[in-house]
Amino acid sequence: MKVLLYFDWMGGTRKEVKDWVNKITKAAEETGVEYLGLYGSMNQKWNYCAMFDTTSYNDFLKMSWKVPRPKYMTHYITELLINITLS
């Protein structure tokens, strides 16, 4: 499944975003989650979207618990994209 993590980053610097990306990448490696990158969101609400590939939402949660939410990440939501096989 793909997990999209949409979030706002208010008041922090680009370096602080990069620091968060480095931490979340390490946590992903430790928990078997694949970090697919950081994207700019075309949605008016969100500044960024981090994308992950995982076999379960529980693995994603374990990864996210390893990295405390930075104070600059004021709002966030997760969206799950579940693979569907049409027969």
Question: In summary, what is this structure?
Answer:
The chain has helices at about 15-30, 55-65; strands at about 1-5, 35-40, 50-55, 75-80.
> Which value, in Å, is the CA radius of gyration?
13 Å
**Main structural class:** alpha+beta
Order of helices and strands: EHEEHE
Strand elements, count: 4
Q: What helical percentage do the residues reach?
A: 25-40%
How many distinct folded domains?
A: 1
Strand content: 25-35%
Number of helices: 2
From the 3D structure, determine the CATH topology. Alpha-Beta Plaits
What shape does the CA trace take?
globular
Average predicted local confidence, pLDDT: 93
* Level-1 CATH class name: Alpha Beta
User: What separation lies between the terminal Cα atoms?
Assistant: 19 Å
Q: Main β-sheet, in a few words? A: 4 strands, antiparallel
CATH architecture designation: 2-Layer Sandwich
User: In the CATH hierarchy, what is the superfamily?
Assistant: Ribosomal protein S6/Translation elongation factor EF1B
